[in-house]
Amino acid sequence: MIRILSVTLHRFFRTGYMQRIIILLIAVFVPSFLALKGRSTDNVTSGPAVSTPAMVCSSLYREMRLEGVVNKEAFRQAVTGYLKIEGRKKDILTLIDFSKPSTEKRLYVFDMKKKTMLFSSVVSHGKNSGGKYATSFSNENGSLKSSLGFYLTDTPYSGRNGYSLILDGLEKGINDRARERAIVVHGAAYADPSVAQASGRLGRSFGCPAVPRNLTRPLIDTIKGGSVIFIYAESPEYLAHSSILNDDRIGRVYINGKLTSGKDTSSLLSRVSL
Q1: Does residue 270 sit within a domain?
Q2: Please, which residues have CB within 8 angstroms of residue 265's CB and are 6 or more apart in sequence?
Q3: Same domain for 97 and 161?
Q4: Higher pLDDT among residues 126 and 25, named by residue
Q5: What is the mean pLDDT of residues 15-38?
């Protein structure tokens, strides 16, 4: 019996029956497996692509090629707040980086929609905020100091400093007295780079971000009417008290490349690993 079974199996393999059965099984089951795998992958990847503020900051910093030009931490804070501010009316963000000396370009204007830098310039700080560097800040009347934090631009006007731009501070106790203190963007002769070359620093204002006169009108006309300005310094005190940066809401996110308010995307974000 055993010999007969051995001979039968030998003939079965020699005649190619097993090979045919294996090929048949592959032909039947492999396409079905691939189809199921494809449907599974579709289920994972379908739906909108969601980007959180942190992801947007890193991506923009790379895409705009800001490495070595703009302080990454200053940019991160600026973009994070920009995405959270619902009242803005323009896709323009201005960053003033007071961690840099007044002899260097430290004002940057970005078109966030086109992902380009529109301006970079020197800018003055308040006379009581420091000499070459701004190190002390205040929201008080008569302090003659700069104030940190987030602002929205309002309308331009012509005053004693020429063409100027009204600012509204958005953070209570940090810069919300900006309008009361007449903190505006304006041009000034003491804010010209030639002054820094001659004296080792720019001239200083009464607390306003003053810019070179030849830049005043094009800059103001670009940022007027509801764009965000962020004034940055390496200040643990500001970080501890910022009502915008410490807001626990995710704020705005990009969904399929479009900026959307957090309230419209809470259900989606709950499924995203942040």
Answers
A1: no
A2: 50, 250, 253, 255
A3: yes
A4: 126
A5: 53
**Tokens standing for 71?**
């302080």
Q: pTM for the whole thing?
A: 0.76
Q: Region 9-37: what's the mean pLDDT?
A: 53
Number of alpha carbons in the 13 Å side-chain half-sphere of residue 77: 26
- Which domain range does residue 23 map to? 2-45
- Pair 124, 224 in one domain: yes
Closest CA to 247 of 88, 87, 84: 84
Indicate whether 69 and 119 sit together in one domain.
yes
Question: Phi and psi for 153 in degrees, rounded to 5?
Answer: -80, 150
Report the Cα 156 to chain-centroid distance in Å.
Answer: 26
Q: Which two tokens stand for residue 240?
A: 């501890």
55 has pLDDT over 90: no
Q: Where are the alpha helices (DSSP H) in 173-223?
A: 193-199, 213-223
Tell me the C-alpha distance between 230 and 211, whole Å. Answer: 15
Q: Residue 235's CB: how many other CB atoms inside 10 A?
A: 18
Residue 263, pLDDT > 90, answer no
